């Protein structure tokens, strides 16, 4: 097979979920991953937290999609028997100054219909004796999921829907032509593949993949790496 309706670059949790959706709509999908298996990069180095969606810019897509995604995730992981724990999360004010910030977070949560329980210093100690804060908020909606199981389920769905997943296959270059989008993998210049749509969500490599899309002018955001602790 060399002609696809959709080609998804990368085999992390985002690409697998996109490929799952498209294949469930009977689209002819190819997902290509440069590593020898799925989820070897960001998607296997996270904390597996299902976020409530409390901190995003008001009415932003991030806020909207985080909340929609949380509802979808809890439902689908429950239906599929994927390991998860809706354990909740405590947001801690480590000093009296930060109590004001908690008030702001609580007000924002009310706007979004997310329940947060206020904890005073004493309640905080009862819930988590190791914590030494001035106060806190308990978010019931936050949880954790087994990301690997989640990705494995997405992968099974893509293959069940007759989507194509290939490992050890690196997207190299793409040429946007008048009537087709041609691309090559693993620098094999003689094996040209065709796709109607290319979806680039290749994690920390996305800007490099974007630079290899030829014959099309678009702005590639500057990459700024940040280390978080
Ligand atoms: C420390 C840390 C903690 C985090 N904690 C959380 C959390 O608790 N909850 C949460 O929701 N999010 C969390 N995140 C964010 C989350 O991990 C990412 O948003 C998510 O994994 C991104 O998935 P992705 O599929 O876009 O990227 P990746 O998982 O990085 O997938 C991109 C894939 O593209 C492949 N690729 C790259 N270039 C090419 C190419 N040319 N050809 C073929 N394949 C290519 C890569 O090999 C990779 O497998 C955390 C992130 C970090 C770093």
Distance between the termini: 44 Å
In percent, how helical is the residue content?
A: 25-40%
Would you identify the CATH H-level superfamily of the largest domain? FAD/NAD(P)-binding domain
**Biggest sheet descriptor:** 7 strands, mixed
Which structural class matches the secondary elements? alpha/beta
Rounded to the nearest angstrom, the radius of gyration is: 21 Å
Named at the architecture level, the CATH assignment of the largest domain is: 3-Layer(bba) Sandwich
Beta-sheet strand percentage?
Answer: 15-25%
Helix count from the secondary structure assignment: 6
- General form: elongated
What's the level 1 CATH class of the largest domain?
Answer: Alpha Beta
How many domains? The number is 2
**SSE string, helices as H and strands as E:** EHEEHEEHEHEEHEEEEHE
- Note poorly predicted spans: none
Q: How many DSSP E strands?
A: 13
Average per-residue pLDDT, rounded, comes to 94
Q: What is the CATH topology descriptor of the largest domain?
A: FAD/NAD(P)-binding domain
């Amino acid at each position: 097979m060399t002609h696809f309706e959709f080609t998804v670059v990368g085999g992390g949790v985002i690409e697998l979920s996109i490929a799952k959706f498209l294949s469930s709509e009977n689209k002819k999908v190819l997902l290509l991953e440069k590593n020898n298996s799925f989820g070897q990069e960001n998607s296997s180095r996270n904390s597996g937290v299902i976020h409530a969606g409390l901190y995003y810019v008001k009415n932003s897509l991030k806020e909207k999609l985080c909340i929609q995604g949380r509802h979808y995730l809890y439902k689908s992981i429950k239906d599929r028997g994927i390991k998860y724990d809706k354990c909740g999360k405590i947001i801690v004010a480590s000093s009296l100054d930060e109590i004001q910030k908690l008030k702001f977070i609580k007000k924002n949560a009310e706007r979004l219909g997310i329940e947060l329980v206020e904890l005073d210093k004493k309640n905080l100690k009862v819930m988590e004796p190791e914590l030494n804060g001035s106060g806190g908020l308990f978010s019931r909606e936050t949880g954790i999921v087994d990301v690997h199981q989640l990705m494995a389920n997405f992968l099974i769905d893509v293959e069940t829907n007759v989507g194509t997943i290939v490992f050890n296959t690196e997207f190299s270059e793409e040429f946007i032509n008048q009537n087709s989008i041609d691309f090559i993998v693993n620098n094999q210049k003689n094996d040209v593949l065709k796709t109607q749509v290319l979806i680039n969500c290749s994690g920390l490599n996305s800007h490099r993949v974007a630079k290899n899309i030829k014959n099309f002018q678009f702005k590639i955001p500057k990459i700024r790496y940040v280390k978080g602790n």
